Amino acid sequence: MANYAARRGARTGATVWRVRADGTQQHIVPDGVLDLMWFQDRLVVAGADTRAMTVRTRPGEVTWGLRLAPGVANALLGVPADELTDRRIELAELVSPPKRWSFEDDVADALEQVLIDMWARADPDRSLLRIAASLDRAARDGLSVRETAERHDLSERSLRRLSGRLFGYGPKSLAQIHRFQRALRLARSGLPLGEAAATAGYVDQAHFTRETKRLTGRTPAALARA
């Protein structure tokens, strides 16, 4: 991840990131979020991933992205997030393009301007966004599907349907991906794999390894070195 950098956007506070390709392929692992990206001179929506994705790139090519907060993609695009799962779609195929902003000088600022334009046009339901944020916190805290449903006064069936609409997959998958990402961050920070697994909530290192292979096809050790 040496070529990856992220910061808070000055206009919206959203996380804006950039990654410089170091080869002809970029491997992307599930992270539980949807992004608006400037990729190869196109505005693209990246749906939530359930598995590792491989994207063709040119060495040195820079991709910019803006991480959409929980529920925002559904609010701005008007489509259930699970229709975008494991897909990369040009923004223009989903909604009418917002006012054209120049991406020649400051790509991060242009992405934020697009978000601002889309937000003003969609006028998102704030109460639904608060529920989305709460469901995301529950998943990051490792709550079970039953605990999350009870906390939000939902049936488990309603929770699964709402989670698919807001995040692109069910609450169990969302919690698993957040746990995987937490353990991976800890491992990349230098914590031994066993300690990273235990801290993130895995039964043991073998459990972390099995889930990482299922999600990405690679081992935690290989990902930690990437």
Characterise this structure.
The protein is α+β, with helices and mostly antiparallel strands. It folds into two domains: 3-120, no CATH class; 125-225, Homeodomain-like (Arc Repressor Mutant, subunit A). It is built from nine helices and eight strands. The chain has helices spanning 72-77, 107-122, 126-140, 145-151, 156-167, 171-188, 193-200, 205-216, 220-225, and strands at 4-8, 15-20, 25-28, 34-39, 42-46, 53-56, 62-68, 88-90. The strands form two sheets. It has a six-stranded antiparallel sheet with strand order 1-2-7-4-5-8, with helices on one face. Strands 3-6 form a two-stranded antiparallel sheet. β1 and β2 form a beta hairpin. α3 (126-140) crosses α6, α6 runs antiparallel to α7 (193-200) and α6 (171-188) packs across α8. GO terms for molecular function: DNA-binding transcription factor activity; sequence-specific DNA binding. Keywords: DNA-binding, Transcription, Transcription regulation. Residues 125-226 form the HTH araC/xylS-type domain.
